Amino acid sequence: MTICTLTELERQAHSAGLVLRLKVSRPLNFWALRLVVADYPQPDKVRILGEMKAWAYGGVNGLQLDTMRVSASAPIGVGHLVWAATMAWALEDTPCRKARLLAIRDAEKQHARLVRYFLMRGFYQVREISATPTDFPLRMIWGGSGALMVADCTEILKKSFRLWQSCSYSNEDVDVSSSA
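Above: the chain sequence. Below: its structure as tokens.
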């Protein structure tokens, strides 16, 4: 399977009536990303349907996913597009090949739901971040405790792109809002 480019994903989003936009800044030699998928319900009104916030440093394991949200009213496939575009950006514009995130532990039921979702996406758990002194630096980075998970950017892109392409354009009743 050929890996899809960010330009191709933007074109496909446009064909589906969606807008895919990235805002990237480079503070202190890091990349800060905000990726948004939106539509225009009216000519002068933008509605954000999904987004990913992430940051990266110049290393193979440098992509750190912070927040991923998909509106409950978003058309099916928006989440797949967000994931695919994020991974395409990382692979094209950074040296990152692995992504990390924290499935935050706020409430047990929500935590279990997040872990299942990220496992389904292709992540695997590498460790549990808790209240131990050795976990303090990671808690400062991620803002809490939870399951630290890692995935291969290329594999996430392939899977997300395949899912994005297979979607019909109807409403999705899924809201995966979390600090990841």
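The first strand starts at residue 19 and ends at 25.
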